[in-house]
């Protein structure tokens, strides 16, 4: 089977094909933005959530398409295949390495922005919902709450994240210890495959349905919609977001204890722990830099029970009643997105965060044994090397339902045996095209990652696909794609770290559904090649 080769004649050939195909399948055409249109750069950059990928030096799509009907996505697939064009599909634009908006390969590509395919339909009686891939988590939570205050869904906390990519990579959040990942709670999907067919779970087959729930759907097609199994949530949850000075011995003891306990406490409680430097004024009125430990949590119950549980499990935190707030489940996402001035739930429908985001780079690890205290201090001490508040280390606990699901149930394999996930993060404000500044900050985070090598998971050194990191390996798209061994060996360098042995099953699914490797990017599952 020959591999897909970029053979674009001219952009006009593609656009002409699209106009003909769209007219034959729909009463309207997708909105098309080309570089000559005044709206082109505004549309391209509006949903790039990492400004690092707004750099003028990066390759740009020769067309951005914002379809309003599923048939228009089919037309893009047909014309892209006919004219040798790669497709990048964008839901919320949060891919950490910008792969939904830009390309690191010298090949012609288009961006399909699904922002107009964002409907949410909730069925309270069956406790289910259909959500189109262009919707954000905020839109999903808002629409669920419109129908019921006692239904929710276990996905991420950031309201601007698009469901299309988030669900296809796993989807971790405050409910995950109780109900599993978002991908664990998907019961159907609609996808357009490399042949342009619209498939649901029954017609796509169980192997493809397995692959797109945690294995990165962009390797296999374009997901149009997900059907979700909603979960019960109480009428009232309790939240807190408290900061403590890490230099205090009590806080150090608490952090070390958190490592061993956060994955084992009551499943109704999920405590995220993060660290960054901050400016502080001492007793003499002098400014100094301190290291803050932030404990951010949701408890699916009231404050009284939360305080009892915290006193039992984490007395060193000294959590006070006035540091906790009771609210509805959906209101907790307003709170955790740092809207704390009485904003209405409508704020969840916005696509802009309530905090500044500079250009950034992130990496991640899984931890299986508590990190020694001296190593923790060494890791956190490196935050002082970055500008105040710009380096950030966050810890997300495992346990509960996550441990009960097998590694092979879906492609996401990070289950029993993990204490928590670490995300290392740095951002900066220099111009996106400032290569020197980018190198300085990315050198810092790579040094931090190297420092942690002995203390995190091994064989493989596992990482979370939704915290995508091209440092761990890329496909050789422009090199030798004629050798199955080279293809698979190259991709396995990064694939094993994301998916462990599930990577090889993903390769077999890819070979069945997309043998010519039409859906491809710098970290996409390759097919076995045949000649």
Structure description:
The protein contains 16 helices and 18 strands. The chain is globular, with a radius of gyration of 23 Å. By secondary structure, the chain is of the alpha+beta class. α1 (11-25) packs antiparallel against α3 and α15 (484-499) packs across α16 (502-513). It has a seven-stranded antiparallel β-sheet with strand order 15-12-14-13-17-18-16. A hairpin with a 5-residue loop joins β8 and β9.
Keywords:
alpha+beta, 531 residues, 16 helices, five-stranded antiparallel β-sheet
- How much of the sequence lies in strands comes to 15-25%
Structural class comes to alpha+beta
**Which word captures the global form?**
globular
Query: Which whole number gives the mean pLDDT?
Result: 93
Distance between the termini: 5 Å
For the biggest β-sheet, the strand order reads 15-12-14-13-17-18-16
Largest sheet: 7 strands, antiparallel
Number of strands: 18
Number of helices: 16
Radius of gyration: 23 Å
Q: Please estimate the helix content.
A: 25-40%
Uncertain residue ranges: none
Cofactor: FAD
Domain FAD-binding PCMH-type: 57-233
Organism: Ficus carica
GO molecular function: FAD binding; oxidoreductase activity
């Amino acid at each position: 089977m020959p591999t897909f080769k970029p053979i674009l004649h001219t952009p006009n050939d593609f656009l002409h094909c699209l106009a003909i195909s769209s007219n034959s399948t729909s009463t309207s055409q997708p909105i098309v933005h080309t570089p000559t249109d005044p709206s082109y750069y505004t549309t391209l950059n509006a949903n790039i959530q990492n400004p690092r990928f707004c750099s003028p030096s990066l390759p740009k799509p020769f067309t951005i398409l914002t379809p309003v009907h599923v048939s228009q996505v089919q037309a893009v697939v047909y014309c892209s295949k006919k004219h040798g064009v790669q497709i990048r599909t964008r839901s919320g634009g949060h891919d950490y390495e910008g792969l939904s908006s830009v390309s690191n390969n010298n090949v012609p590509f288009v961006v399909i922005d699904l922002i107009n395919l964002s409907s949410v339909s909730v069925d309270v009686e069956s406790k289910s919902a259909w959500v189109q891939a262009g919707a954000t988590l905020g839109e999903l939570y808002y629409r669920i709450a419109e129908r019921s205050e006692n239904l929710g869904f276990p996905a991420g906390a950031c309201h601007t994240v698009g469901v299309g990519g988030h669900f296809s990579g796993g989807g971790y959040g405050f409910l995950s210890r109780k109900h599993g990942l978002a991908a664990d709670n998907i019961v159907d999907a609609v996808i357009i495959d490399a042949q342009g067919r619209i498939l649901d779970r029954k017609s796509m087959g169980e192997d493809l349905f397995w692959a797109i729930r945690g294995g990165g759907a962009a390797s296999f097609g374009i997901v149009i919609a997900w059907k979700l199994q909603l979960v019960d949530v109480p009428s009232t949850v309790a939240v807190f977001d408290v900061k403590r000075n890490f230099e205090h011995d009590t806080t150090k003891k608490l952090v070390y204890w958190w490592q061993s306990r956060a994955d084992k406490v009551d499943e109704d409680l999920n405590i995220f722990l993060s660290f960054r430097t901050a400016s502080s004024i001492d007793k003499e009125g002098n400014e100094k830099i301190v290291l803050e430990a932030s404990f951010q949590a949701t408890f699916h119950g009231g404050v009284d029970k939360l305080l009892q549980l915290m006193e039992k499990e984490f007395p060193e935190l000294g959590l006070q009643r006035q540091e906790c707030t009771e609210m509805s489940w959906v209101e907790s996402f307003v709170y955790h997105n740092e809207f704390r001035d009485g904003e209405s739930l409508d704020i969840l429908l916005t696509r802009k965060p309530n905090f500044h985001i500079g250009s950034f780079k992130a990496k991640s690890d899984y931890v299986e044994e508590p990190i020694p205290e001296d190593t923790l201090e060494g890791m956190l001490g490196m935050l002082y090397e970055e500008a105040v508040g710009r380096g950030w280390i966050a810890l997300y606990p495992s346990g509960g339902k996550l441990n009960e699901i097998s590694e092979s149930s879906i492609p996401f394999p990070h289950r029993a045996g993990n204490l928590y996930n670490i995300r290392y993060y740095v951002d900066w404000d220099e111009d996106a095209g400032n290569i020197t500044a980018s190198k300085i900050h990315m050198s810092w985070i790579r040094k931090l990652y190297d420092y942690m090598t002995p203390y995190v998971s091994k064989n493989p050194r596992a990482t979370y696909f939704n915290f995508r990191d091209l440092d761990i390996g890329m496909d050789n798209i422009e090199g030798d794609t004629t050798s199955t061994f080279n293809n698979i060996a190259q991709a396995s360098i990064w694939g094993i770290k994301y998916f462990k042995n599930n990577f090889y099953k993903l390769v077999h699914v890819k070979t069945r559904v997309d043998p010519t490797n039409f859906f491809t990017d710098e970290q996409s599952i390759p097919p076995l090649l045949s000649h």
